[in-house]
Amino acid sequence: MLPKDDSCAAVEDRAEGDPQHPLILERVEKKPEKKWHTVVLDRVKKHCSCTPEKVKSKILGFVPILKWLPHYKLRDWILGDLMSGIIIGILLVPQSIAYSLLASQDPIYGIYTSFFSSVIYAILGSSRHISVGIFGVLCLLVGQVVDRELALAGYLPESSIGINNSDTLLAGQGNGSNVECDRSCYAITVGATVTFTAGIYQVLMGLLQVGFVSVYLSDSLLSGFATGASLTILTSQIKYLLGLKIPRPQGWFTMFKTWYGLFTNLATTNICDLITSLVCLAVLIPAKELNDLFKSKLKAPIPFELFVIIIATLASHFGHFSSEYGSGVAGDIPTGFLPPQLPAWKLIPNVAMDAFSIAIVGFAITVSLSEMFAKKHGYTVDANQEMYAIGFCNILPSFFRCFTTSAALTKTLVKESTGCQTQMSGLITAVILLLVLLVIAPLFYSLQKCVLAVIIVVNLRGALRKFRDIPQMWRVNKIDASIWLITMATSALVNTELGLLVGVLASAFFVLGRTQQAQVTELGRTATREHYENVSSYRGLQTHSGVAVFRYGAPIYYANQSLFKKSLYKCADLNPVKEKALRLKFKKNKKQRDETGKMPKVKSEDNLSKENEVEASASITMMLDEKFSINIRSLVIDCSGILFLDTAGINALKEVRKDYRGLGVEVVLAQCNTSVLDSLERGGYYDSKKDGEVGKNNMIFFTIADAVSYAQSINVPNGDYDNKS
């Protein structure tokens, strides 16, 4: 407690802090609440009315390309869009082939996926810069579902059927048709069905206008999830680097199962694949580092991945790596497009939960990236429109045997750095991929799978570098660092999808925990102006004689109302419940001592008169006051940090007021926001008006100074504690 300053009470001559003239604000009259059927009718009229202007606005909003394409600045923008489109197209060719491996699909389907997503997002997307296509985390999630469904349908693991052979089952076991479907066909059927279901979820969320859910997925949560998934991806690719033919484990703790399988099969390592992997790693890692080192000087990153793929394919073809050394290769990659087909309806119940988590991850990544780059370049994006765009990037391509897509940070950074201005660059990327689909794809027949695994592993460098940032994250914010670590560890060690759920729950737990940890602090006034701050944080603050000022910096609701009272009683160094119990105990003991001999016993007819009883009661009261003296006569609570109150919070404030009044201490609230004032009024905190006069508890103070001046002006006798309520 700081030294008391009685001069603080001398504020009667000021406009601020004058108990006779406190600051008074007049509330704006509330509009009468509409009946529910009126609200429903208004909403129906708003959303169902049809005018030419509204139709045009809806169409332009749903298809943004119609808005920006007519105003396209050809001379200013075409060069940047052309350059970025070509560069992204060249980068996507090897990555699309490589990430197909991660999704347990044939290489051609990765190129299909990148092509369709580039076209559809260019038409429906509201971001000018993000690159939508294959994303490693989603490929991992899709691949896990595909492998699980292949096993449930009775297909043998790839390691049991040879490299370029596949077993055949009736597709009727999975998709309801009566045609034969080999392992590759069923795999893409499962992948396309998952993609279709995820797209439906995303479009439904857009229709329900739930784009706001992205704000609940913090950057630390998404980063931790991506890093944990990257560890799982890295582990899943080691078998290809070593040329091992082992099935992908299913269920929880897949990382431990994978490492167990790797160690038990280490003796069967394919030396050709191992040497190829080491050579490619030795080339690509330094090359990528050089790209990063000189990215400010390079107009575009050098496509080392494409060079490695071309050289490795030629070496594998002319060296006969597949036939001579048993090395796994990409195999036949057809040209053109396959006819569209419907998803396997019977599979949807099996993959519905997996598709939901995939939909959430894809949407969250896309929205966070689009908002980040929109803010950087000074324009806005619509989260709900992004939901539509990414949803249709999954629904429509699923009919052409594609798997799930979203925005990808690495390619988006490359796209922005190479001069991208609009999504015209996405259309140019689609042209590059179309050329590959129609002409070049079969040339990658001899490409080794270990080379594709190297490309995947090398592209994980950015996510894995996050481990170096842990000490800095911990120093900046321990809670965000804890969320990152929990999400990362769960995603990597337990289960990828579970990691996202655990991260969300951990974030919610920490948010609630912050309200649990809020403490009441004592405030003091500055010497030069009417400003109050925490006396334990700043020097030179002065407290008031007989009036204590406290602040609580959190909402008061059912989960922390008892902690609020406990913290207030501790900070005030006066627990009214215990104090009153001690007084009653003292009074009871005093009465018992008087009855047991310290006062003479008399017969009933010789009892004290009423006057003597009053004198005895007053004497006991005086003794109580001397023994239990209280320095505080009034207590001011600064409510500026209390955002809202629920019923339990209102009752807590009522109990605090009642308990302190029992000791003759008046409780005054100051600086309540309108939400808190309305809650107090509805909860019956204020006294009702009697005889046209305002009750004592109806005083509303908009400044602490006014509340303190009022508290100093009132005088609540100590002896009234038994009569207050």
UniProtKB/TrEMBL annotation:
Residues 537-711 form the STAS domain. The keyword Transmembrane applies. PROSITE patterns: STAS. Residues 589-610 are annotated as: Disordered. Keywords: Membrane, Transmembrane, Transmembrane helix. InterPro entries: SLC26A/SulP_dom, SLC26A/SulP_fam, STAS_dom, STAS_dom_sf. Residues 592-610 have a biased composition (Basic and acidic residues). SUPFAM superfamilies: SpoIIaa-like. The chain crosses the membrane at residues 77-102, 129-146, 186-208, 220-242, 262-286, 347-367, 388-407, 427-460, 481-512. It holds the Pfam family STAS. It is a multi-pass membrane protein. It is found in: Membrane. This is STAS domain-containing protein. It comes from Ilyodon furcidens (goldbreast splitfin).
